Amino acid sequence: MSLFDDQCAMLRQVAEALGEELREQVAFVGGCTTGLLLTDAFTREQVRSTDDVDLIISVMTYAHLHRFKDALKTKGFKEPSSMDEDMPICAMKLGELRVDLMPDHDEVLGFSNHWYPLALQTAKPVSLGGDLTIRVVTPPLFVATKLEAYKGRGEGDPLSSHDIEDILNLVDGRPELLDEVRSADSALQAYIAAELSELLGNDDFAYAVQSQAGDPDREALLFERLEILAGERG
């Protein structure tokens, strides 16, 4: 089974446990959704391994978060035990699978992602097969949330960043992304352009692109797409 198949199995496990009502209240985001957004079959099989599923949820206070967690507990989710090391405060467990709850307001946990509210509002339905459908963050907002996450936790090191790896996978494996970003909200376009332009000036980012591409022709195409997204090429 490929890593993409593993990711789909993780997403199905969470989606089925949530049930229809809770599924409609969340948006799936993060590395586990990367493969769902890729339209190039070769790139889809190169997605990275991940051990968690991320959900954007709309809660405005810590009390709201606790009520949402209580609803999840009725569906089989559990709080991490003392044996679960390095679990963030937003994490829950579904069996052995870690599920991170990402509030769309930073007042809840003291941190969030600027793009989460729009990402949750505009998430699109994606089929996982059969009659199981989840709401997934759109490709342009996937890029924006990943860029924002990299700024917060990437420590200026694009070579070792999973966020950068996921962005490059999407740029590489979804040619439609260029038109989708062009059609996106102007503030979103400007943010993506500014952040990618800065990254393109980083030598380590260039090495990350080379690693993603694997050969000179694909590397040239990947740089071309990145430069278009950064507004440095028409």
Automatic annotation (TrEMBL):
<protein>
    <recommendedName>
        <fullName>Nucleotidyl transferase AbiEii/AbiGii toxin family protein</fullName>
    </recommendedName>
</protein>
